[in-house]
Write a structure and sequence with these properties.
By secondary structure, this protein is of the alpha+beta class. 17% of the residues lie in helices and 41% in strands. The strands form 6 sheets. Strands 12-13-14-15-16-17-18-19-20-21-22-25-26-27-28-29 form a 16-stranded antiparallel sheet. A 3-stranded mixed sheet has the order 3-5-4, covered by helices on one side. Strands 6-8-7 form a 3-stranded mixed sheet, covered by helices on one side. A hairpin with an 8-residue loop joins β10 and β11. α6 runs antiparallel to α7 and α8 crosses α9. It is globular.
Length: 684
């Protein structure tokens, strides 16, 4: 068919050139009036959409853009030359009509009856191929044409050639569905015999093929092969390939026997680290980060470790771009780890403008020096101004050592306004920290000083400054399937501190705080089978279905000390706002005071339950999600006084390239107010 169309295109262009060269304009002017603006349009050959010719301009026409005539007016959209009446199940009809070859020719302007007959002869084979991709290999197909009734009002010479050609009637009985009877994976190369690859072989056999008994489809078969190859090349064997694959279909028994033969090639081990593009910073720092990701000399190739090294370097702040790879071509037994970087400027000034529903407009100024002369530490200085909060801070950090730890020191001065209370505070911190994508740890000494002034009671009660010193340990573990768009998994963060107040009354205190967040796909909870639109591969085990997921967030905190201990207010707890209890303003939930304001308390409890559901469009998941939620939070000075304040609401989330953008409308049951809450990104 393609050769036929191509030859007709060439012939048409030759005819146009001959007519243009030999016929005088007067002869062309004597043509039928209905074709006078385009002499060869009435006799134009049958061309597919991608080979149409606009003879007025002698250029190919794209049917997606309306062609123009000589007078500049766009040609009206082409009417369908025939109708299709497909009789099959609703799901099959939608799939077949979406992919049927006949659909491409319905709006072909010059399609005639003889060409349609040739298309109808090829239609059954096209339908069998489409049904075969779904596992139906014994269909019964009938294709017929019901001609249209000729119109008696047609008077022009070209109208009969352009009249409606009729209705193509297609009857499809798909027959029995073919199911997978067996699925075998065979190995060649080092993986076939290496003892250390036994676990990898079993993992490929378990998840790289289709389970027996399931319906066969081409999409699932293609996905199974892709999964098997991905698992092969992810560890030890980056040059692995599929040597052979076969889906043996037995139409008589409606069974499919699947075979995949994987050739691993030689195993690859990690060699030296080669850094390219580094000038401003120490190459030894890059090598340490690569080794900390697990790429030690002599270890097996691991794609996950390569990605971890690349992520660690990218998040270090020293580089604008990072690319980490291994090249085993010359020496698979000691393949070098190549790190290509583009460095950031040594000094950087960033001006920021933003805002939030909690804090209003925000202006910030940040200055970063990535390598302070003399000590080689990074210094980050920041000034941030908001409606009720102002902050000035400085953070100094050393490069990571061979164990992944780095020294940190910081200082900050802050001022925050909560109703009638203005709190000014200072904080100094020094210690060590270790950060990885899954686990963060730190221990540090901290000095706090805070002074809270109530404008309504200033003349009645003095407002002394309270201070303390404490030793703290913080630990955070993340087990999410995705650190930007999590859909399953959980995270836990714990912080413990022991300290003493300073000043005239030196009394000890203990402080603890914990956060936990978990995601559960609803289909996994209910046992609902994971499905996909007909013709597409079944979702993987960690894919979220149409029902979405549940997100449960819990948070608690406590400070134990004598009631008379003058603990700084920055060590106590407040809650409420965009990321805690929606329906209430920032830090609106605390211990109620006589003047109607709230003050921080010694005990905190927060809980939130969300139903996050993706929105689908035409069988495809869109970046939009709907959210409904219930939040509750309480703060008190005694555990028995904790009384939750509730917030309920709904919102929309857009999964943007920089992370989730969420807009929520929440109602506070105790405050009896509606609030809009904005939140960008996910962090834990």
């Amino acid at each position: 068919m393609n050769l036929f169309f191509t030859s007709r295109v060439v012939a048409t262009r030759l005819i146009v050139l001959v007519l243009t060269w030999q016929l005088p304009s007067a002869a062309l002017g004597q043509a039928d009036p209905s074709t006078q603006s385009n002499p060869v349009e009435a006799a134009a050959p049958l061309l597919p959409d991608d080979a149409r010719i606009d003879t007025a301009a002698d250029t190919a026409v794209d049917e997606t853009t309306p062609p123009r005539r000589r007078n500049g007016q766009p040609r009206p959209p082409a009417e369908p030359r025939f109708d299709i009446d497909l009789q099959a199940t609703a799901e099959l009809s939608a799939f077949l009509l979406r992919h049927l070859e006949l659909q491409r020719f319905r709006t072909l302007r010059d399609l005639d009856a003889s060409e349609l007959e040739r298309l109808l002869e090829a239609a059954p084979d096209n339908l069998r191929d489409l049904l075969g991709t779904l596992g139906y290999f014994s269909p019964v197909i009938e294709v017929s044409l019901t001609p249209a009734t000729p119109s008696t009002s047609t008077s022009t010479a070209t109208a009969p050639a352009r009249s409606h050609l009729g209705t193509v009637k297609i009857q499809v009985e798909p027959g029995p569905l073919t199911r997978v009877a067996s699925a075998q994976v065979y190995f060649k190369g080092d993986i076939a015999t290496a003892p250390e690859a036994a676990e990898q072989r079993e993992a490929i056999r378990r998840s790289g093929t289709l389970a027996t008994g399931v319906a066969f489809s081409q999409a699932d078969w293609d996905r199974a092969k892709t999964t098997a190859l991905r698992q092969l090349t992810a560890q030890r064997y980056p040059a692995g390939r599929i040597e052979n694959s076969l889906a043996d279909i037995d139409a008589a028994t409606q069974s499919a026997n699947l075979y995949i033969e994987l050739n691993s090639g030689p195993s690859v081990q990690v060699g030296a680290v080669r850094v390219e593009g580094i000038e401003r910073y120490d190459p030894a720092m890059v090598e340490r980060m690569v080794r900390l990701a697990g790429l030690t000399p002599g270890s097996d190739y691991d794609l996950t470790q390569l990605q971890a090294a690349q992520q660690r370097l990218a998040e270090s702040g020293y580089f604008d771009s990072v690319f980490v790879y291994m090249d085993p071509a010359n020496n698979p037994q000691a393949s070098p780890v190549v790190v290509q970087v583009r460095e950031t400027k040594r000094k950087m000034l960033v001006l920021g403008v933003g805002g939030s529903t909690d804090k209003g407009a925000r202006l910030s100024v940040e200055h970063t020096h990535h390598r302070v002369p003399g000590i080689g530490w990074r210094a980050l200085n920041k000034l941030q101004l908001e409606r009720d909060d102002q902050l000035a801070s400085t953070v100094w950090s050393a490069p990571v050592d061979d164990r992944g730890w780095r020294w940190i020191s910081s200082g900050q001065a802050a001022r925050q306004i909560d109703n009638f209370t203005t709190t000014t505070s200072q904080r100094l911190r020094a210690g060590q920290a270790q950060d990885t994508p899954d686990l963060d740890r730190s221990f540090f000494l901290q000095y706090d000083r805070a002074r809270a002034v109530n404008s309504a009671l200033r003349s009645l009660l003095p407002a002394p400054a309270e201070s303390s010193v404490s030793a703290n340990y913080a630990w955070t573990r993340r087990r999410f399937n995705d650190l930007v768009f999590p859909e399953s998994g959980q995270g836990l963060s714990v912080e413990l501190g022991v300290g003493t107040t300073l000043g005239d009354a030196r009394l000890p205190f203990t402080r603890a705080q914990a956060r936990w967040l978990g995601y559960w796909p609803i289909s996994a909870l209910s046992g609902e089978p994971r499905t996909a639109p007909l013709g597409e591969a079944r979702p993987a085990a960690d894919d979220t279905g149409r029902a979405g997921r549940l997100a449960l967030r819990l948070q608690g905190g406590a400070l134990w000390a004598k009631q008379t201990a003058p603990v700084p207010e920055t060590q106590l707890f407040l809650t409420g706002g965009d990321t805690t209890v929606r329906g209430y303003g920032l830090r609106d939930i605390g211990v109620p005071q006589a003047d109607g304001s709230v003050s921080p308390g010694r005990y905190l409890a927060v809980a939130s339950l969300e139903w996050q559901r993706p929105l689908w469009r035409n069988g495809t998941r869109s970046p939009w999600e709907s959210v409904v939620f219930v939040d509750a939070g309480a703060v008190a000075n005694m555990p028995g006084d904790l009384r939750p304040k509730w917030g309920v609401g709904a919102g929309m989330r857009y999964n943007s390239p920089v992370g989730p953008l969420q807009v929520d409308l929440a109602y506070g049951l105790q405050s009896k107010r509606l609030r809009v809450h904005l939140n960008v990104g996910f962090s834990f």
